[in-house]
Design brief:
The complex is a heterodimer. Chain A is built from 6 helices and 7 strands. Chain B is mainly alpha-helical. Chain B starts with a helix and ends with a helix. Classes of the chains: A alpha/beta, B mainly alpha. Chain A: This is ER membrane protein complex subunit 8.
Chain lengths: 206, 295
């Protein structure tokens, strides 16, 4: 029985804000979870909680060097904050295309090497609305070298009502204009990919 | 809902100048263009003089991006009235059909432009964009190649083709496109850097060495290009770590990687200026560089 994955409001919110900031581009990023202290015997009951999201790139996703830099840097940051990279998300360039592709499978597999329960998440832009009335993700698990889609519903969230309310509010308020991804950071190092201001807004609205 | 001029305390001249800047820089900040442009058109049309026509065009395209068909339609009507029979306006009408996903009608529109003027590059490129929007990448690539045989100097087209190839993971052909761009734009650090990224992604020792050279070249052209700096570091490190290189090559690449490390650290220190958030970044970069050099 695979461990279920849960997303916090902050993680879901930043994913959607990233996609909203670049509606005409493909976007991708990472999800991080808190590092578990030790593997409990009945660990199948505790779902993996993805507490945060690090937006990575927009536009051309299929090039290696900056992705390697980002993965290594964020891995180091994770170690300092007792996080682990637990997942990868991607929204494709074409709205109607929400299937995983070579990029998402490759990066997902790379993350799964270090974290066996890694999830690969595809964003379904056809259902993306300002009201955020339903979750718009498709979650994939790595099983025997294949990616299998699992059900994504309100149970995949720590608190769906909160996630819905806050994500919608931030979209209406155009918070995505100030969202920083790793590409923005490479353009200007002062841009902070941990997005502290948006994190504060999320907390403020909770 | 407060107006743009009220919210940001700007005059209509400043709004007009901002629109011009966004036009010149080819920014796709469509929501902002719609906000500023719509107000300018509604409140200050009489003051804009002949500028208004290019503003109508700019706002119309931005409106299509934001699904504001009402605004796009208004702009289009004004342009049709002022420039009846214009190919440029016909193309805009075609773009509106594209936005409404009426691809057949859009293609008809572009075909009619091309019948009157077979050299109309804008119409041909829109037809290729339709193929892209429909997910027909192979056809888009084929059409774009044909286009470039005729219009060999169209840099936007070469760049678009390189991106299409990258998305298909055909890095060799993407590199060829970027080589064309570098030849005609030897001082453009971005093309150099992108070429280096493609070579790096292709993999193999030879490509890694090429990528290192082009990351270095990009840095020479613009010493603030962080992607080039990181790329130089990554490629030199991988070459140094390769079992296929001799001791001299290894030593040289360790030297390049170390130089890059110091430059990266310096860049982060300069950016950080001691703020709490950036201290984390600086530390993370230091540890990352340490961890790779040790392997």
């Amino acid at each position: 029985m695979r461990m279920s994955i849960k997303l916090t409001t902050q993680a879901y919110c930043k994913m959607l804000l990233h996609a909203a900031k670049y509606p005409h581009c493909a976007v991708n990023g990472l999800l991080v979870a808190e590092k578990q202290k030790e593997k409990k015997k009945d660990s199948h009951s505790t779902p993996i909680l993805c507490v945060d999201c690090i937006p990575l790139f927009h536009g051309t996703l299929a090039l290696a060097p900056m992705l390697e830099v980002a993965l290594t840097l964020i891995d180091t940051w994770c170690k300092e904050n007792k996080y682990v990279i637990a997942g990868y998300y991607q929204a494709n360039e074409r709205t109607k295309d929400f299937r995983p592709n070579q990029v998402s499978e490759k990066v997902g597999a790379r993350i799964a090497e270090n974290f066996s329960e890694a999830a690969m998440i595809m964003v379904d832009s056809t259902r993306f609305t300002m009201g955020c009335y339903e979750p718009i993700l498709a979650i994939y698990d790595h099983h025997e070298n294949k990616w299998k889609c699992r059900d994504c519903n309100v149970d995949s969230f720590d608190d769906w009502c909160e996630a819905q309310k806050i994500t919608s509010a931030l979209l209406e308020g155009r918070s995505y204009e100030s969202l920083i991804d790793f590409d923005n950071h490479l353009d200007d190092l002062r841009n902070d990919w941990t997005n502290p201001e948006i994190n504060k807004s999320v907390l403020h609205l909770c | 809902m407060a107006s743009v001029s009220e919210m940001y305390d700007v005059t209509w001249e400043e709004m007009r100048d901002k629109l011009r800047k966004w036009r010149e820089d080819n920014h796709r900040n469509s929501e902002q263009i719609v906000d500023v442009g719509e107000e300018l058109i509604n409140e200050h049309a009489s003051k804009l003089g002949d500028d208004i026509w290019i503003i109508y065009e700019q706002v119309m395209i931005a409106a299509l991006d934001c699904s504001r068909d009402d605004l796009a339609w208004t702009c289009l009507q004004e342009l049709k009235r002022q420039f009846p029979g214009s190919q440029r306006v016909k193309r805009l009408a075609g773009m509106r059909l594209e936005a409404l996903e009426k691809y057949e009608d859009a293609n008809k529109q572009y075909d009619s432009i091309l019948q009157d003027d077979p050299t109309n590059t804008a119409a041909r490129k829109r037809k290729i964009s339709i193929l892209k929007a429909q997910g027909k990448s192979a056809e888009a690539i084929r059409e774009l190649n044909e286009y470039l045989e005729q219009f060999v100097g169209d840099q936007e087209a070469w760049h678009e083709l390189s991106e299409l190839y990258i998305n298909e993971h055909d890095y060799g052909k993407a590199a060829f496109c970027l080589e064309e761009l570098m030849m005609t734009n030897p001082h453009n650090h971005l093309y150099c850097e992108q070429y280096a990224e493609v070579k790096y992604t292709q993999g193999g020792l030879e490509n890694l060495e090429l990528s290192r050279k082009y990351f270095a070249q990009a840095l020479k052209l613009n010493n603030r290009n962080m992607r080039a700096l990181f790329g130089l570091y990554m490629s030199a490190s991988h070459i140094a770590a390769s079992p296929k290189v001799n001791a001299t090559v290894k030593k040289a690449n360790v030297k390049y990687a170390t130089w890059a490390t110091n430059q990266i650290n310096r860049a982060y220190q300069l950016a950080g200026r001691g703020t709490k958030e950036n201290k984390c970044s600086v530390k993370a970069v230091e540890e990352m560089l340490e961890s790779i050099t040790m392997s």
